């Protein structure tokens, strides 16, 4: 019940100001956000690599309102890629991008987002890594898939994300699995209406299993984005039945969530990629993490009350 309320609050400027200024916020934010700068995130990438983990990096900041901010977002990724190149970490770190951050919601946004993301994809390829386009709310997806298709003409390894809560997703999965691209399947983190999305957790989970089966049996590279132990073991079973080797799919989890499970799966020989978000504009990302687990909100409220 609390989830939709928190997701609605994630769109409120007033709430953003309150949460950002609250005295106990930083302590809770630090659990989910790896740092504010490239310098702070580099040790986290090297530490992950030492532990046999890979990462996908998200420079947070989806709520931009001008083309200049969109260009700055592009430059932040280019700076990150340059650092990864200097450190020789290209093979261990890929990028996750939100097209909203690259200007997708602005006037002429589809072309603007494509123009901003392309140099990032080119720079990533030059250091031996890839970019995955995150899935945002359902109104943005046709544009995201069109940009994905366009980028794949030159960079077929460009990935995208699909969300099991949306009715449309099984069809998207069939198209993408046949095309052989890298596809991350997640449950979905936005507030979506009943006209387009399952509202019931059990239905979302059942759809997730159906979609995983499509991806595992297809020609693409499935990326299983979930912390749900039941879905993880079903993924292993489906991969086994589809005759996939351990390097023919991967698991992905978020930084700060079930970290012991990251290590357990990596120790079993799985490729495990940790979605690592960093930057100063963490509000939207943080609120989605609160919405996913009501206990996080209680922890957050307690931390505000004790520090306040
Ligand atoms: C790598 C990755 C990339 C993602 N990219 C996208 C994207 O592009 N678009 C999108 O809409 N969504 C994205 N998501 C979020 C996703 O849609 C879900 O909201 C999120 O993963 C929670 O679903 P779950 O599968 O972990 O299952 P759940 O049933 O929500 O969680 C299973 C268990 O995991 C733990 N857990 C899950 N979330 C939290 C949390 N926030 N805090 C503490 N514990 C938690 C709990 O123990 C919980 O019982 C991504 C998720 C991952 C892992």
From TrEMBL:
Question: Pfam families from the entry?
Answer: Pro_dh
Enumerate the PANTHER family for this protein. PROLINE DEHYDROGENASE 1, MITOCHONDRIAL, PROLINE OXIDASE
InterPro entries (alphabetical): FAD-linked_oxidoreductase-like, PRODH_bac_arc, Proline_DH_dom, Proline_oxidase
Could you list this entry's UniProt keywords, alphabetically sorted. Answer: FAD, Flavoprotein, Nucleotide-binding, Oxidoreductase, Proline metabolism
* Protein name per UniProt: proline dehydrogenase
Q: Read off the Gene3D superfamilies from this record.
A: 3.20.20.220
Q: Which pathway?
A: Amino-acid degradation; L-proline degradation into L-glutamate; L-glutamate from L-proline: step 1/2
Species for this entry? Streptomyces longisporoflavus
Q: What are the required cofactors? A: FAD
For this protein, the Enzyme Commission number is 1.5.5.2
What this protein catalyses is: L-proline + a quinone = (S)-1-pyrroline-5-carboxylate + a quinol + H(+)
Give the Proline dehydrogenase domain ranges. Answer: 46-299
